[in-house]
Write a structure and sequence with these properties.
- Helix 2 crosses helix 3 and helix 4 (98-107) runs antiparallel to helix 5.
- The longest helix has 15 residues, at 113-127.
- The chain has 6 helices and 4 strands.
- Helix 1 (12-24) links the parallel strand 1 and strand 2 (31-36).
- The chain has helices spanning 12-24, 42-53, 72-83, 98-107, 113-127, 137-142, and strands at 2-9, 31-36, 61-66, 90-94.
Length: 143
Amino acid sequence: MKYVVLVSHGEFAPGLHKAVNMLAGEEREDVLSTSLSNGMGADEFAENVKSVLSVVGAEDEIILFADIVGGSPLATTANVLMEMDLLGRTRMIGGMNLPLVLTCVLSKDDEETSELIDELIEGAKDQIKEFVVAVDDEEEEDL
């Protein structure tokens, strides 16, 4: 199985996990998440990560998403993955957002992981756009 694992500061990863479940199906066992809460130490967070990853089997792959490249959640999770001998079967991406993770969840079983990662990163670049609504100048003056 390919697992999608979300880690973050605060409640971002669990919140994103809930949004993904809403859009991709509530009963998904292949999406996991945990977060570094305010005041939580690195050791406690590492134990949370170990607990979340305990379902990963010897033949499974992990696609890990984190909120910030180089942030404590990503760095700590990478260390845990190394300790659990899972790092070699893990791909990591920082800067997660809903379209990126949702696309991964819906596409991961249809593509090789390396190709998927390339497509995800390119697709994520295309997702960030300014949303502009045209306003009629005459209406604006009436306000």
